[in-house]
């Protein structure tokens, strides 16, 4: 029997449970559907990266990846018929859109006597698997993490490109789409594809894993894995990473496992509460008054462009524009600034991040934002307001991060770069004065949280 392998967020051939489900040596058609509904919110960086990953996957399959465009509920059943495939294999998707899409595809397949077979997921432990003693779901990270580690995960699936007998899509009469090519918006995007993901993981494991527990908080140094875009598109599976650290009991490996647990946790939370993608997870935050109108729009634009006059905030926003990526610590600082200093709604910032990030992921992004805003799970206490100067001085102590991304400040030595308004001649030409007074806005933010506190 012929199988259809429908790739989505698993653009790799190693550790591919769907191949195991199809059975070694089975005749198989490899398919990717470009779904306009998913491409919409993705900006150029993520689209460019996705196309690169598809090209890399196609190469591993000797040019046998069929790429088509359209609504999967129509396209997938049609191609399955065309290829004579009864079984369509996928890794399960747990996002609100992906789940509904898969149910629609499944219904259409069932109507024609076919089936959708879900094997594996983009997570070490799929949403819904980690349960409390009485079968409930976790709403706080630390106990989730403990239960997640106890639950454990399967070893990587031993698959490669030769595991299945790939059909040449040219033999079918479907309108294949050449994989779109696009000039990258920036030269600094990660190299797409599975082989590049492996290389990056090996370098990180060799050079940075040991010091990761401390190194991960320093945006001025290359201390994190930068695997997020690869994980997003499944160029590498988290299980492969966990297996690669098996037996490492050091603090670096412990901390890195914890970050992979956060990724699984947020996917679980989104699965529990699909509405939390767009609404406050903690509904008492609906009582928070946020700003709108021309002044708010002007401040929002300054934030997006990295022209707030707060160097670490501006460096982060410009890193995002330049690389489609921002260091985690700086994601927290820039998000806090938007929500607590500019009093704008978190979802506005989240939408900009989702467009710009090469690793943009609904579960991690929306919940990362809500964690900062205070409206999410494990919320940072809302009354703790990041001071952008102190955060800069603490995590970018020599100012190297700021100087890398804000050329106007490149001539200022050391940590003085975090307070350019204190220089004898004021901020250098071309660099803005602070758009707000942090002390004042902090007080405003605390005042605005009063109705939230009352609603709890
Ligand atoms: P590393 O430090 O090397 O971590 C390894 C992996 O663990 C990451 O690749 C990621 O998959 C996972 N991870 C790490 N931290 C987190 C976290 N806090 N939550 C969930 N997973 C985590 N991550 C995304 O993948 N996509 C997003 O759209 C996203 N948006 C964010 C928005 C905000 C406001 C915040 C505060 C965080 C966001 N994160 C997001 C989490 C985190 O910032 C990134 O995963 C991380 O910076 C990616 O860089 P890295 O691969 O070098 O991370």
Explain this structure to me?
This protein is an alpha/beta fold and 456 residues long. It has three domains: 2-121, HUPs (Rossmann fold), CATH 3.40.50; 122-156 and 194-272, Serine Threonine Protein Phosphatase 5, Tetratricopeptide repeat, CATH 1.25.40.80; 283-455, DNA Cyclobutane Dipyrimidine Photolyase, subunit A, domain 3 (Orthogonal Bundle), CATH 1.10.579. It has 20 helices and six strands. The chain has helices at 17-22, 36-39, 44-60, 72-83, 96-111, 141-151, 194-207, 212-215, 228-232, 238-244, 251-272, 294-305, 311-323, 328-341, 346-356, 362-373, 388-395, 400-405, 438-448, 450-455, and strands at 2-7, 27-34, 65-69, 85-90, 115-118, 165-166. Strands 1, 2, 3, 4, 5 and 6 form a six-stranded parallel β-sheet that branches. Helix 6 packs across helix 11 and helix 13 (311-323) crosses helix 14 (328-341). The longest helix has 22 residues, at 251-272. The radius of gyration is 23 Å and the shape is globular. The protein starts with a strand and ends with a helix. The structure holds flavin-adenine dinucleotide. Flavin-adenine dinucleotide binds next to helix 9, helix 11, helix 14 and helix 16.
